[in-house]
Every structure is written in structure tokens, then in C-alpha cells.
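Hi support team,

I submitted a single chain yesterday and got back a structure, but I'm not sure I'm reading the C-alpha cell output correctly. Could someone confirm the output below corresponds to the sequence I sent? I've pasted both exactly as they appear in my results page.

Thanks,
R.
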Amino acid sequence: MKSLSITIGDASSPEYPVGVHFTIGVPLIDAIIATTEQIQEHMLEATRGALLPACPGHQHPLQVAERDEVAIWVCPRDPAHYAEPVLPQDTTG
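Hi R., thanks for writing in. Yes, this is the structure output for that exact sequence:
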């Protein structure tokens, strides 16, 4: 079974790198969402609680979700309030 690991940050520092690991062969949308969630979780820890990315006009972070096979940032309380692709459309094909 093949797998892929991605490390972001200074790999020599135990505090800051974030690692993302998943089996090769998962659908691209699942890989994008898993990677985004793990980076968001790491940023929450690294910034000691900063709500990133912030939901415009609200006091909570955006949440990653799937809509029409596209990973999007969405307001977790009101999806109609805010939604934006995580990646530009031409980078996920």
C-alpha cells in the first residue's frame, strides 16, 4: 500500500511542523479536505487559539466542506453567509 506524507514548517522543530498523511488512491477531494483540516488545526495550536481563517462578520473560524466535489471554506452556522473555494478551481484538476 502506498502512502503520502506532507510536512509543512521546520521539520527540525517539534513545535511547528504539521504533517499530513494519507493513503495514495484516496479521492482528490478527500485529500484536499484532510490536508486543509490538519493545517487549520495546526494553525489553531501554533497561534494559541487564533480563529483562522476567520468567518467574515462572525466570531468563529470558517469550516472546510465539500460542495459539488469542490473543497470550500464555509460559515459553519450559515452556509449562505459565506462560501469560497479552498483552492482556485484550475488547481484541483
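A quick pointer for reading it: Residues 28-46 form the longest helix (19 residues). Let us know if anything else looks off.

Best,
Support desk
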